[in-house]
């Protein structure tokens, strides 16, 4: 029997036992070509404002997001075990692998340049709600006037570029400095936009956050679509 999409995307257990960039696009009174002309009731609910948080999580303006980057259940064949997160930077998707060749697919934004992106397998070593953001030394060296003032870090909150949740990836016991996190710029999902981390819509990173425990495996594919070791 097919899984009910709304129940799945809104929070079923799913068959399982760097970071500031560009201005918003200018939008006319009509939706841009290829985007949602009318709001699907399910997606309006999925991407509604989130209550009960210490800081606001506003609703997503669906007219700013290409429909293919909205969360959905899809067929996905992989050798990875259920519970693994597979990130495909080339396709701009992250997949939470489920049973029976299915996955939850999330649209993502990736690094501005190929060299910014981590590749290979890692482990979620830490999860944080409303995380503190500190630019890396490389970011400060590249753009000192932009990032130097944040060298001491920026507390979590509505203006923090990591958004409401972050997943911290480690490999061989060491921090890769690579995160999956939210964003204050939802219109950038689907683009090459970040300083190397993977960004998701805030409602999507909150959904993924509650589905994956610490210790979960994450695989970031190479440009060929295959794992890079």
Automatic annotation (TrEMBL):
Keywords, A to Z? Answer: Cell shape, Cell wall biogenesis/degradation, Glycosyltransferase, Hydrolase, Lipoprotein, Peptidoglycan synthesis, Transferase
Give the GO cellular component terms, alphabetically: extracellular region
Instruction: Tell me the route in metabolism or biology where this protein functions.
Output: Cell wall biogenesis; peptidoglycan biosynthesis
Q: Which domain of life is it from?
A: Bacteria
In what residue span(s) does the L,D-TPase catalytic domain sit? 83-221
Q: Which SUPFAM superfamilies does the record cross-reference, listed alphabetically?
A: L,D-transpeptidase catalytic domain-like
Among Gene3D superfamilies, the record links this protein to: L,D-transpeptidase catalytic domain-like (2.40.440.10)
One GO BP annotation here? cell wall organization
Q: Which PROSITE patterns match?
A: LD_TPASE, PROKAR_LIPOPROTEIN
Which GO molecular function terms does the record list?
Answer: glycosyltransferase activity; peptidoglycan L,D-transpeptidase activity
Q: Which residues of this protein are catalytic?
A: 181, 197
Q: Which family does it belong to?
A: Belongs to the YkuD family.
The protein in question is named Lipoprotein-anchoring transpeptidase ErfK/SrfK
Q: Which organism is it from?
A: Bosea lupini
